[in-house]
Amino acid sequence: MAFYRVSPFRYGSLSSLIPYVSSPSSLSPPVRTFTLSASISTPHPSPPSLLTASPKASDRWRPMCLYYTQGKCTKMDDPTHLETFNHNCSRELQVNAANFQHLQSQHLDFFLVLDLEGKIEILEFPVLMINAKTMDVVDLFHRFVRPSEMSEQRINEYIEGKYGKLGVDRVWHDTSIPFKEVIQQFEAWLTQHHLWTKEMGGRLDQAAFVTCGNWDLKTKVPQQCKVSKMKLPPYFMEWINLKDVYLNFYKRRATGMMTMMKELQIPLLGSHHLGIDDTKNIARVLQRMLADGALLQITARRNADSPENVEFLFKNRIRQQGSLSLYLHRVFPEKMASIWEVTHH
């Protein structure tokens, strides 16, 4: 059974109907493979935009159904719902490999684009799986995460401030699960795609995480694992910081996703600071860099014996925040979290 409420979205005058799910479905949504058809624009060195094909009326931008991304949409037979919401996460990521004149052979088969949300505790865990050779979207993993150390009142206040303005606070409350469960489902998803097995020592197989900065995997995931009283999963031992690759490839500094998109003239789609939308936008920057001829390599790696120690592999890289900022985050975590939410990316 599903109910509706009206919720405002950021773009245009759209008012969208969000289905309230009263009975969660399966553990994980089925694997979805997408057919891509649009094209990349002018090749390296400076194409004006990643996507230039004129969209059809039926392909207008629509917000993702955030129940669907988590395998919990009960309205797939409702024409109004299908017309209002997007159920294809590759819609903004359509490319045509035939137009890639500068595409380099990558050392990896897949890129896992990840962009966490939540400064105090992780609130959203989205991952887009991109084929390194074709740049196609292979699949999406997306979960909202319920904090384990906050009171219900604090959670409600935090989510209202974080997601209420985006109109997705209801779906967060309906679908969020503890971080431990998210990791269990994520590992099942990795195994389903043959990217990881415990028998292989826990490392990813021919795949790597791609992040916009080091914070997600260097800082936040270990913090959350400690809060959730669990060991750091071994597949979080290395990653690609897109900022560092961008700096070394284009020879110019970009402090975050918005800067990279502006410089590459890629329009922002969706809601900034909604993790799934930011992940898709970071993936669009990744696609553009691949089309321009960038070679993506691991930029950071943990010490196997002392995982808290991270080696940064690029000599030229975007430096982390200063000691004063780190001190303020430790002493005033909630106040700094509010500031961080505004300035992140």
UniProtKB/TrEMBL annotation:
Key word Lipid metabolism present: no
Species of provenance: Vitis vinifera (Grape)
InterPro entries named among the record's database cross-references: 3-5_Exoribonuclease, ERI-1_3'hExo-like, Ribonucl_H, RNaseH-like_sf, RNaseH_sf
Protein name, as recorded: Exonuclease domain-containing protein
PANTHER family: 3'-5' EXONUCLEASE ERI1-RELATED (PTHR23044), 3'-5' EXORIBONUCLEASE 1-RELATED (PTHR23044:SF61)
Exonuclease domain residues: 115-286
Entry superkingdom: Eukaryota
Keyword flag Hydrolase: yes
Key words, A-Z: Exonuclease, Hydrolase, Nuclease
